[in-house]
Amino acid sequence: MPKSKRDRPVTLSKTKKKGRGHKESIVNSIREEIEKYNSVYVFSFENMRNLKFKEFRDKLKSSSRFFLGSNKVMQVSLGRSVSDEIRPGLHKISKLIRGDSGLCFTNLPKEEVQRLFNEFEEYDFARTGSIASEKVELKEGPLDQFTHEMEPFLRKQGMPVRLNRGVVELVSDFVVCEEGKPLSPESARILRLLGTKMATFRLHLVCRWSPEQFEVYKEGLDDSDIESS
């Protein structure tokens, strides 16, 4: 019996692309927040960890609102020039939304915001492609931190290991990673097993806008850079 054309598999994991309506919703939300808060900050981040950022955001939810997403959408929301900015001076911070950036709307005093951002630092395991901050080398001999069940997995990661009377043993010195070089998938897995954290999730304030003042915090930037960019 011929197969019906209606009998087609449906992928339940397939999701619709976020279209124009979603972008307009973000634009409207950002513009609404400008009327509610005293200050707007642009911040940059490195080694983003979503769970840790959520914790930081939740700690400030009574006084602040954060936005991450498309830089272009955030720029359009604020206005990219004097002619389309929604409040005087907002086009200046719009020009500094670059790379890994976000927006923070807040009613906190600027000294408190600076303290919170400067003190925020979370260590985590580095991911594939991250640059190793140090050389990690394992010496020949027993690896007591690993159980015998781990031996096949360690071998798959390229480690020269064997079982010696039920103990995992390294048959020769092994360099897990070299300082200043990108981590391979195998290196990242081994570092995680060793409990070695090389990634630091940080937030950096770039600039601040309020109806009374515009300030740049990032080194190497000033008003002339912003107006000419």
TrEMBL record:
It holds the Pfam family Ribosomal_L10. InterPro entries: Mrt4, Ribosomal_uL10, Ribosomal_uL10-like_insert, Ribosomal_uL10-like_insert_sf, Ribosomal_uL10-like_sf, Ribosome_Assembly_uL10. Transmembrane segments: none annotated. Ribosomal protein P0 is the functional equivalent of E.coli protein L10. It comes from Camellia sinensis. This is Ribosome assembly factor mrt4. Associates with the pre-60S ribosomal particle. Belongs to the universal ribosomal protein uL10 family. Residues 126-195 form the Large ribosomal subunit protein uL10-like insertion domain. GO terms for cellular component: cytoplasm; nucleolus; preribosome, large subunit precursor. Residues 1-24 are annotated as: Disordered. It is found in: Cytoplasm; Nucleus, Nucleolus. Keywords: Cytoplasm, Nucleus, Ribosome biogenesis. CDD domains: Ribosomal_P0_like.
